[in-house]
Write a structure and sequence with these properties.
Endonuclease, Chain A; single chain; seven-stranded mixed sheet; SH3 type barrels; 8 helices; five-stranded antiparallel sheet; 253 residues; alpha+beta; 2 domains
Length: 253
């Protein structure tokens, strides 16, 4: 590069620097500094004032209230906004809703009614519906199964569970089977005490409530609804593990 060209480039850089809007640092003591933030470190800013002090000075971050960058491109770079935007496109932003007993019961119907592909359930204890939200839940999963959705329920049937609970569950799920719900059982080994519903691989309900009238009205329970494909994928992996062990009613001993 010839000297004339070099001088011209330096001139342009000087002009651009002069035309750039200054950065403003607002201090906690009420002062405002105008100049250029040269660098941002973990605990301080390297700052050069527009007038007065020609050399850079180090300003502790705990003395700063906020910073306004004069150049939007510089602000995006310093604050990492472009990187955050790229990461945000690949981030699964989960939402979790705490559901005590009655709130859980009221959420059951809408969650399964929204299903378009699958409803996977693990249940320790289920029983015939009488009234209320549990009736809506069972009517909905039966209708979804008749419509061709993959509706699967894995129930507990191990020796560690009282016979009354096992038999009540077995008797009721026979009705669900007639409508196309795939019902399987865990028998042997540890008691399967999980209560979980996975809908369309993106929404998970889990907690302490059994899928009974008491579990949705009256009992002291706590549950959570998590809307997150990533979380649902992990839950589905656990469901698949149980499903591989589960057996149909005809194989129960």
């Amino acid at each position: 590069m010839n000297p004339a060209h070099t001088a011209f480039v330096l001139f342009l850089l000087a002009v651009n620097t002069a035309l750039a809007a200054p950065d403003l640092i607002y201090l906690r003591d009420g002062r405002m500094l105008e100049g250029q933030v040269m660098n941002e470190l973990r605990d301080q800013y390297s700052f050069r004032a527009s007038a007065g002090i020609p050399a850079s000075q180090q300003i502790p971050k705990d003395a700063v209230k906020f910073v306004v960058y004069g150049d939007p491109a510089k602000a995006r770079q310093v604050l990492g906004l472009d990187q955050a935007a790229r990461l945000g496109k690949n981030t699964d932003l989960a939402t979790a809703t705490i559901l005590p007993t009655e709130a859980f019961g009221q959420s059951l119907g809408p969650v399964v009614q929204a299903a378009t592909q699958s409803i996977w359930i693990t249940a320790y204890y289920v029983s015939g519906f009488i009234e209320g939200p549990i009736k809506v839940f069972y009517e909905t999963i039966r209708a979804k199964a008749r419509a061709g959705l993959d509706v699967v329920m894995i129930c507990e049937f191990s020796a560690g569970t009282r016979p009354a609970v096992r038999n009540a569950t077995l008797n009721f799920v026979k009705e669900l089977s007639r409508d196309g719900v795939t019902v399987l059982f865990i028998q042997g080994g540890k008691t399967m005490h999980k209560k979980m519903i996975i809908v369309d691989g993106k929404t998970v309900l889990l907690g302490s409530s059994n899928l009974t009238v008491a579990g949705t009205v009256g009992s002291n329970e706590m549950n959570v609804q998590v809307d997150s494909p990533t979380f649902a994928k992990r839950a589905a992996s656990d469901f698949a593990r149980l499903r591989a062990r589960a057996i149909p009613a005809t194989e129960l001993k």
